[in-house]
Structure formats: C-alpha cells, structure tokens
Amino acid sequence: MPEFAIVIPTFNERGNVRTITRAVASALEGMDFELIFVDDDSPDGTASEVLELSRTDPRVRLVHRIRRRGLSSAVIEGMMATNAPYVAVMDGDMQHDETVLPAMFRKLRRDGVDVVVGTRHCAGGSMGEFPSERVKLSQWGRRLSALVCHADVSDPMSGFFAVRREYLEEVVRNLSCVGFKILVDLLASATRPVHVEEVGYVFRNRACGETKLDLQVGFEYLELLLDKLLGGWIPVRYALFGMVGAAGVVAQLALMRLLLFFGQVTFDTAQIISSLLVIGLNFAANNRITFRQRRLRGWSWLSGLAAFAVACSLGLYLNLRVADGLFGMGVQWPLASLAGILIASVWNYSMGAILVWRINRPRRWVPAVAVPVLPIEPMPLASQPDPGVVGS
Ligand code: GDD
Ligand code: MN
C-alpha cells in the first residue's frame, strides 16, 4: 500500500497528463506514492493517454467514469479509490505547484492535523497572473464560504489540498458532492472544529487546454452553500426553484410599472402581458439554473416552454382555489394567499421536474474518443517472482 496518493481530476487534459506525471514524480522522488487520474470520459481521449502511461509506470492509475460529470464527485471517487493514509488533490493543468507536495505531506503527518491546504493567500503564496475578475470572484466565494466552513482558512476556494484518511472517512457521508468547491464541502461537512494547516504556493497559468469554469460553476457553488445551510430541511433544487420564482415576482412588479406608466394599456392587459413574459423568464432561468443538468435546447426548449406554461396555468388555478377557499373559511388574507402560493409552487416544481425537464429519465450520451485497446505483452515466466518461495 503506498503511503501517499495524489488524486487528479481531469476533463479534456490529454496534453497535460504526461507533463504533470513527470512533474509530480520528480517532486516526490524517493517517496512511496500513487497517482490517480479521475477522468469523466473526456472527448479528447485523456483516459487513453493515462492508460497508456500506466502500462509503463505502475504508480499511475485511472478511474474512468462514464456518463458522469463533476469536479467534486470525481475527486471524492478518486480519494475513495485509494488505500493510502495521506491523500492530496490537485488540478491536472499544472496550475498547482507540485513542489510543495512534500511540505504538505510533512505537515499532514503531524499529530492531529486533519487537512493541509495549499493557499495563495499566505507567506509564499500568490494568485500569480490570475485575471483580476477571477481574483474578485474568488474573494466573494471566500466570504460566502465562512457561512458554512468549520475552520478558518485563508483560501477555501483552493482545489489544492491534502487530507488524512481518517478525516475523509469521518465526513465522506455528509458531503454534498456538488460543483467545483470540494474543499469547502470537506470543511463544511465536519461536525467538529477541523484542524487545518496551510502551505503557500504561487498559482501558475494553465499549461495547455481550457478552463471548465463557467457561469454554471457559480450556480453550483450557490447550490453547495444552500445544501450545507438548509439541505437537511428543504431539497436544494426546490429552494433554487423558489428563488427563481421570487425573482420572477420582482420582475413582474417592475414590468407592471413599466407597462402601466409608459405603455398606456389597461391594468388587465398589463397583468396578462407581464405574466406571460415572466413565465418565459422563469422557464429560461430554471432551464439555466435549477435544472441545468437537464438543460433543454433548440426545439425541446420551445416545447418545454409550452409545457411549462400549461403547468403554471394549472398552478395558478390551484393557487386561486386554495387561497379563495381558505379566505372563505375565515383565514386571514396573508396566510390564505401564502398557502395558495406555496401549493402552486410545489405543483409547478413537480410538473417541471417530472414532465418538462424529466429529471429521472436517463439522457442520451455522446461517446468519447474510443480508448484503443493495445495488446499487452505477457511477462516472461522467468522474470516473475514466485510467491510460494520465500528468501530463495
Ligand atoms: N473529472 C472531472 N470532471 N474533472 C474536471 C471536471 C469534471 O467535470 N471539471 C473540471 N475538471 C478538472 C480539470 O480538468 C482540471 O484538472 C481541474 O478539474 C480544474 O479545472 P479547471 O477548469 O482548470 O478550473 P479552474 O482553473 O478554473 O479552477 C481551479 O481554480 C480554483 C481556484 O480559483 C480549480 O482548482 C478549482 O478547484 C479551484 O478552486
Ligand atoms: Mn485550472
């Protein structure tokens, strides 16, 4: 069993696989380690590159996930696939400085240390040439993470860290596994204060390939925070749906004001126009945020919009019936109205999930570049050690 493992999540990193393997091997010279690439069936054939490499270097291993996507979940599967007592995680694009790995492992082996974070915000660390917008985004993420983390860390947004196996076992069942920010997830999933140490490093530029960070990743971070804050009470997807709905109410009020003051239309016409526009806006926002994994495009987008509009009209009918009924029974108007809204939002959400975005249906998959199966030369018998004979 190797003492150290380095987990590297990859998606379309074919050009970086050999470079990073060489760099890590030279940084950990003389240490007993294994390197685990977790690839989500990258279309560029990253997995076959790793397999190829593992044929000549037994320290290299591949976890090849099919029909799966996600940085956090890939990292967790990689960490669970090793037996090593000390596990580090780093990106596969050379942005993290592999030469600080030995220092990270040294600190991790000290008594009572749970996690060692590679940080860009302490002595010896810096953001390198990171664009200023990304630095600002990272600062925001850092502030928000304080809401959920059980440790004071200078760089919780870092994807470069090492954990002790016992700590991983302790929190693994509480992990949310959403999005990019696995370190925040690990630190927020503990039920006790976490002992964290830090090691500075300079963030480098990507060696080759492209970043996978986009708007979606931002929403996933929001989802992670929501899950940590209220996951035990309300399903996160429903909370996102509710937030989109609440934003829709604000948008509708703004539209009403515009139409009534500048559009010279009657109240009823303004209400109808703004309702239709807001149903469209809600659909588009839910398509991008709440149900982004099942995002509809092209013709499916249009038919989805039609189905969503029908579902919401029925929801509105339910809303009116419930609110009206309760009000008639003597319930105060705010409560009656709220009950109507709540029932309608649960209805709209369920119809959206089941009929429009069909979250339980398997989706069609575009296969990646096929991994070539190379013939493996059998080892000559004479060079194989005989397990039955000891000391001969
Ligand atoms: N298996 C798998 N699946 N790997 C993925 C996926 C995925 O869906 N998405 C990204 N990766 C891999 C990439 O191939 C890369 O090795 C690593 O995860 C980081 O992805 P990048 O696309 O390079 O992200 P980044 O450079 O924008 O973000 C990095 O910096 C952040 C700090 O600002 C990451 O290290 C983040 O973890 C880090 O928080
Ligand atoms: Mn990167």
What does the model show?
It is built from twelve helices and seven strands. The protein is an alpha/beta fold. Helix 8 (215-230) packs across helix 9 and helix 9 packs antiparallel against helix 10. The radius of gyration is 26 Å and the shape is elongated. The two termini are 24 Å apart. 35% of the residues are buried. Residues 9-11, 13, 38-40, 69-71, 74, 91-93, 95, 138, 157-159, 180, 211-213 line the site of guanosine-5'-diphosphate-alpha-D-mannose.
Strand content: 5-15%
* Number of helical elements: 12
Please state how the strands of the largest beta sheet are arranged side by side.
3-2-1-4-6-5-7
Give the overall shape.
Answer: elongated
**H/E series, N to C?**
EHEHEHEHEHEHHEHHHHH
* Record field, number of beta strands: 7
Q: Ranges with pLDDT <50 over ≥5 residues?
A: 386-392
Largest sheet: 7 strands, mixed
Q: What structural class do the secondary elements suggest? A: alpha/beta
**Overall mean confidence score, pLDDT:** 88
Ions and ligands: guanosine-5'-diphosphate-alpha-D-mannose, manganese (II) ion
